Amino acid sequence: MTVIDQTSTEFDDADRVGLDHRLAQLEAHAIFVIREVAAECERPVLLFSGGKDSVVMLHLAKKAFEPGVIPFPVMHVDTGHNFPEVIEFRDRLVEQMGVRLVVASVQDAIDEGRVADPGPTGSRNRLQTQPLLYEVGRNKFDAAFGGARRDEDKARAKERILSFRDLFGQWDPKNQRPELWRLYNPRVRAGEHLRAFPISDWTELDIWRYIAVNDIELPQMYYAHQREVVERDGMLLATSEVTPALPGETPFVETVRYRTVGDMTCTGAVRSDAATPLEVLTEIEQSRITERGATRADDKFSEAAMEDRKREGYF
């Protein structure tokens, strides 16, 4: 594995070897988890949003089964309010990878009366659980790989590598299997399924270092670009049909990038001139705010928001 050049901090040779070794260990462990779950479970699926973590997950899955093909499909929970460039990137990448795409559509769930419509500009983030569980059941998936990391928020810090869900898809943080010495038991009972998080131990910096080392393509919105935004609740929200400027708000063009990708109604941008992975690394190293803490409205105003969603059956 090639060691990347660090731009924000001077590293001696020992530091560089240590960084290289850490990335190699993280990659090896993630690939081990992916292979173990794929071997034990009959119908796994990889959750894919088009965001940086799920892109790294797809890259790891490809490495895990080379020179063969990825032996399971990918699934995107589509709110219908996603950034258009992310949907375009998603479709292009899965076609290049040669994997089957399953779309769990919030719009379909609304049209079929499975969830209530929050309105044309309402947030659909909390509506993703039902379409996810619906497609898991309909496709009889018994394992779902996710790109969640423990450093993202308190609820995800409680998560084991393998997280088991009951017949209703719900998660009980007090009822998890031990994972001593990285020994995992991925077997599930009839009707249950598990969520597997191979990159749980990675940090945001690890993700970007891995992207830089492996020259992994991401949606361009992860890098500095100009976008029309409004400032709302301390965040920069892109203006669109589903996120119009409210009375008293004045849209303006700003140079921004995104640290995380989600529903347009609750995902904010950050001011940035970082146009390459190395420049992003420098920026993150100097930041004292987590990627979700400053850019995701659904998590920002309730520390329990993510745990509530996980208990209901989401990630």
Task: Describe the structure concisely.
With 315 residues, the protein is α/β, with parallel strands linked by helices. The chain has helices at residues 13-40, 52-65, 84-97, 106-111, 129-138, 154-157, 204-214, 277-286, 297-300, 305-312, and strands spanning 44-47, 74-78, 101-105, 143-145, 162-165, 193-196, 225-232, 235-238, 252-257, 270-271. Helix 3 (84-97) links the parallel strand 2 and strand 3 (101-105).
Biggest sheet descriptor: 6 strands, mixed
> Over the alpha carbons, how many angstroms does the gyration radius reach?
19 Å
Structural class: alpha/beta
**Would you report the number of β strands?**
10
Structural account:
The chain has 315 residues and is of the alpha/beta class. The chain folds into two domains: 13-207 and 304-312, Rossmann fold (3-Layer(aba) Sandwich), CATH 3.40.50; 216-300, no CATH class. It contains ten helices and ten strands. Helix 2 links the parallel strand 1 and strand 2. The chain is globular.
Write the layout of secondary structure elements.
Blueprint: H1 13-40, E1 44-47, H2 52-65, E2 74-78, H3 84-97, E3 101-105, H4 106-111, H5 129-138, E4 143-145, H6 154-157, E5 162-165, E6 193-196, H7 204-214, E7 225-232, E8 235-238, E9 252-257, E10 270-271, H8 277-286, H9 297-300, H10 305-312
Parallel strand pairs: 1-2, 1-4, 2-3, 4-6
Antiparallel strand pairs: 5-6, 7-8, 7-9, 9-10
Helix pairs in contact: 1-2, 7-8
